[in-house]
Amino acid sequence: MKLGILGYGVVGSGLINMIDKDSKDRGIEIKGILVKDKRKHIDKKHYEKITEDIEDIFSEDIDTLVELIGDEENAYKYIKRALENGINVVTANKAVIADYGDELINIAREKGVSLRFEASVAGGVPVIKVLSEAMSGNQIKSINAILNGTTNFILSKMHDEKLEYKDALKKAQEVGFAEADPSADVFGYDAARKLAILSNIAFEKRVNWKDLYICGIDKVSALDIDSASELGCRIKLICHSEVENGKVSGYVRPAAVETGNPLSGIVNENNLVEICGDSVGKIALVGKGAGSFATGSAVYSDVTDIIENPGSNLSEISDEITNVYKNPEKKEDFIVRYPVESYEVVENILSDNNLIFRKILSKDGDISVFIEKVTEKKLDEIDEYLKNTGFQKSSIRIIKID
Amino acid sequence: MKLGILGYGVVGSGLINMIDKDSKDRGIEIKGILVKDKRKHIDKKHYEKITEDIEDIFSEDIDTLVELIGDEENAYKYIKRALENGINVVTANKAVIADYGDELINIAREKGVSLRFEASVAGGVPVIKVLSEAMSGNQIKSINAILNGTTNFILSKMHDEKLEYKDALKKAQEVGFAEADPSADVFGYDAARKLAILSNIAFEKRVNWKDLYICGIDKVSALDIDSASELGCRIKLICHSEVENGKVSGYVRPAAVETGNPLSGIVNENNLVEICGDSVGKIALVGKGAGSFATGSAVYSDVTDIIENPGSNLSEISDEITNVYKNPEKKEDFIVRYPVESYEVVENILSDNNLIFRKILSKDGDISVFIEKVTEKKLDEIDEYLKNTGFQKSSIRIIKID
């Protein structure tokens, strides 16, 4: 197996290390490595194979292109070119797969080569393999997951060190858990892309990640954290999708998770994915969702899978786009944060609607209220009423899950 | 894919149900089903394909034999015959794989057919696939697992309902969680066979299950349960194996697991397997280790794997038998139960050896003692001394894990 590798950063280094120490002699050979600036890699192994020119990679006689450059536009271009030229592709690029997975896998099928992307979701956790192979005879009913390490780290810091969001984000940036521009992580876009990929495979319908209900963690305050703790919960950025009567729904949002639920115990870069199949029941997978060796390990297993089963592809990836269904009538439990001065009004509406609720805590002019079995539609109505009567509407709705 | 199925019990029914509802039209066709007594299956689907004669199965033109009869001797015979005749085999039989896996997979390789056995360990949890495929580039360092539902159910009952072992066993038998003869489960043999299979694959060396350190749960008392609770632990039958400097060691034994450890929260028929790889780190898998549909799902995925990748086999199964290493000098924390009257003697020896220890609880003439960082060799010496001075030795040693 002759590899062209695009990118020699964190994941690339992990992969190359694994190839070099391969004890099984699988015959994996590195033919070229594309980087942006060759000088930065002068002390690295395989320096003689490093190039800044993509044409050097394609002019080598490679069987498989490993794409680890991150940048969506170029990655898409190179992946497509490789597949069209009958070259297998392994990628860790969630953006490319979320946006173009269906198109690219069709090209791979036509050309009789493989496109694999285990590392694009949950790093070292082999969730795509489990979904598509081990659960092959199951109708998948739902997915619950923590898929983003940055937000998980920030929320843990807020809980454990009583920090406000901004300070926790700063800490995350200092230790390398968050990027200088953390938008894709903290707004939930990264997690939503990953959830869309998993939902695609699980439900065999193309889910556009932008159609999911997405709420990031940037509005979570210390008051919300304390309120969740009062209820025996920890706030996590939860990814959930499900199918019911053929309709797919899903969200990425801060949720208060009871401490008995394994999702509440996931720390730092660890990911958890729980998949519910109609035959096997729930299967949960836990492991590192990021990191050089963890993600490198997932890329490596894709490479060895292609060696073992040349030309195989996921049959579940479909180009039938599905409408992501939103049900504003679904009743859930919520922690909602209102301005203190509006609370009397809120209380009246909740009472008039026979809803069960109670104040949890108040701080800095805000009050958090736990409301049982309420619809988002009703919460929207309350917000609308507050706005029309001169109050500020709620700052955040945190769903509570057992 | 033309199947001959041996056995139409719990797992067979789950599998056949999945085949019948297969939405993907994978072309799986049932050619014959072997049972012991045809009259018992008169109201079942595919009755016309049921036979009591194995020759009816082999005389059909089958590609794959699915072996689900349990009985080790016949299962081995039929599996071997199938493989020798160029027929793929899928089995859920841990006894056959633990005892003859190496021989059988060699025959499969020679004949260019597949032998698959995902369902033999941890039921619906795809641990063999994850070990052999998803962690392909990793050196596996250790395995920690709960692999037996019967003992897990009994120990949970003992904790939650304060039952003695005998009463908890009776309850387990009443609700179908334990067999009339529960020996293989409660003595730890079932778990040891499964651990041996996993260790085989993980360490690529044949581990004889009888060479593992095995201690069942039949000697665990209510006092032990209470003592573990006092330390913030729950007693679980833990399977552990590891490799260090090329030496494999492993045990199946009751262990006091701290409640923060996910192993402590596994209930009933659920299994947990945590595998540590040198690159990916720890991957944990949780799901149902038994049951009609869960185990049927694992068998089904093996069948679809053979359709996708005909002739493929695990490369990790080796016939190089390894010595399972025991290190009596390794220091661990233990809860040890002594007769109350011997405690003064025990106390003196522990003090003389500068060991840190403390009494936990006493009941019915027994006392439980928590001893830190002590070797099994030292505990053996104390037992020997007790015996020589007219006392009874300790009743049980429960290892404590964080």
From TrEMBL, chains A, B:
The reaction(s) this protein catalyses: L-homoserine + NADP(+) = L-aspartate 4-semialdehyde + NADPH + H(+)
GO BP term, pick one: threonine biosynthetic process
Enzyme class: oxidoreductase
Enzyme Commission (EC) number: 1.1.1.3
UniProt entry keywords in alphabetical sequence: Amino-acid biosynthesis, Methionine biosynthesis, NADP, Oxidoreductase, Sodium, Threonine biosynthesis
Membrane keyword on record: no
Name of the protein: Homoserine dehydrogenase
